[in-house]
Every structure is written in C-alpha cells, then in structure tokens.
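INTERNAL AUDIT FORM
Audit reference: QA-55
Scope: verify that the stored structure record matches its stored sequence.
Auditor: D.O.
Record contents follow.
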Amino acid sequence: MNPIIVQVGAVVACGVYGSFFEWFWHKYWMHYPREPKEAFRGHTIVHHGLYKGDDSFFVEEELHAEHVLLKPYALPGLIALHLPIIYCIDRYWLPHTALTFFLATLAYFVVYEFTHYNMHVPRKQFVERFAWFRFLRQHHKLHHRYMQKNFCVLIPLADWMCGTMITEKTLAKQKAAREAAIASGQPLSKKPVRS
C-alpha cells in the first residue's frame, strides 16, 4: 500500500476518532461527576457557570479567561492515555504510523484549545473571519445554552452521528412545530425535528 495514503488515512482516522473521543469524554466525564471529578467541577460547575449561552459566553478581556483552556495536565494525560493505543495500531495493524498518530493527536489538542479559546475570547484573530469558525462558535454557544447537546467543539461529526447536534435552524423548526401543534390542538410530537 502507498505509504502516503496510509499516513493521510491515519490523519483522517485520527480526526474522526478525535471527534468521537471528544464527544464521549465531554458527555460522560465533563458533564457527570465521575472520577476524575475535577473534569466535572472544572467544566460543568466553573466553565458553564461563568460562560452561558447568552452574552456571558464571550470574555472581553484575556485576563479573565483563565477557565476557558483545559488544565495543564490535560495534554500529558491525553497522550499517556493514547500511547498504548497508538503503539498497538503501529505494531499490529498499520506499521510506521505511530509518529503520525502521535502528531495528529497533538495537533487535534492544540487546534481544539486554540479554537475554543477564540470562541470565548474574540480577539479579531484570522480564524474568526471563516464561515466554518463562525459555525463552530455558534455550535458551541448552543452547547452552553443546552448542555446535553453539541458536545464537540472542533469536529461535530460525533454530535451529528449520535443525535446530539442542534442548530438555530433545528430549534426554529421545533418551535414552529410546537406552535402549529398547539394552534391545531394536536398532541406534540416527541420526534426531534432534523435539519
């Protein structure tokens, strides 16, 4: 197999896996008081307590943004957690991909932190001009309004696949469907409205 295709495939696989890992960790550890409880306290209690889905979502001054970034031990912990997985993939499935998976994991983390920080602390960075960034910012702002939705900050693939993705458009459709049901005297549908 072409080694370039293998390496590119490894990067894509890491991005897809990163979306699902982020979704799983965010949903089941950062929003539930499981061990390590610092993940729940730091995220749900502190981060969501300070930054809501309204104007408080934005932090105007960088000095007051200390609860936006993950703790300094998050990256070493993430790497330590994934090194055995990376080793097994390299050893038994896709040889010569360990460095690619390691660098892709590191890149996902760095881009996640950069993106999340710029979502909360608008500084007129170059990324803020892109439509994809504005979409992700709105996606994340809705998570701060509806904490059991939109768990992915960087790649919302897992939100879409797991049925936890909402947008302003889907919220408007749900509201219109509720209002139409109330106006017609019909029972409200329990099925979510998809965009």
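Auditor finding: record pair retrieved intact. Residues 43 and 49 are 9 Å apart (CA to CA).
Action required: none
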